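agent: user wants the full assembly modeled, not chains individually. Plan: 1) parse entity lines 2) check alphabet per entity 3) run joint structure prediction 4) return tokens. Steps 1-2 passed, two entities, 224 residues total. Proceeding.
--- entities ---
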Amino acid sequence: MKTVVKYYGQLTDITGCESEEMNGTSLHEVVANACHKHPALGQCSFSTAVGSRIVKADVTLQADQTVSFLPPFAGG
Amino acid sequence: MTTEKKKKTVFTAGPISSAFIGDSIQKHTTKTTIGAHDIFLGQVRADVINGKTVCCIEYTAETEMAEETFHVIREDAFAKYNLTCMHIYHSLGKVNAGEICLFVFVSSPHRNDAFEACRYIVERIKKEVPIWGKEYFEDDSYQWKSNN
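--- prediction returned ---
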């Protein structure tokens, strides 16, 4: 299954894009595939969100869900 | 019937002007149960890093998540402190050094709640809201901002 992944902040420099499709049926599978495609991503600190919720545990993804890669926040 | 409060829009394009801040204060003159306001203004610093000076920060966000998180922070602050009202504004896009990028405005009958709530809200924004800043130097190179 193809899942839309979105990258934010400094992760857009590492991946060279803000969004792309990634294979995977679970969150951890999508993260592993993204890190395989962009090895420097694996060296970065980030949290992940499914839809608009931050999720740490592995979850099965639904077809219309988006996975976001969120580097440490820096507002203010 | 839903009791959920309407989510307020927090993000504003570019810097937050002193006129906007002044108008916001002026609008509270009719709310006479208020005895104390506290205001936090985040300003872009012209940090010098390796001999290069930051001239502006370009802010981006996961806006849907960010607005939801702002809403949760607002609700938590209202539950924790005796507040009359609260306003939060954060810039998106470019903000020059010396300009305001974050405006938190808290009002309460008494000062202690205003002081404590304002700090509580600012600290949670820094920690929990998915916002990022690209610090541009004068030569157009950049680095990504990190919060301490």
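agent: reporting back. Chain B has three helices and eight strands. The first helix of chain B runs from residue 18 to 26.
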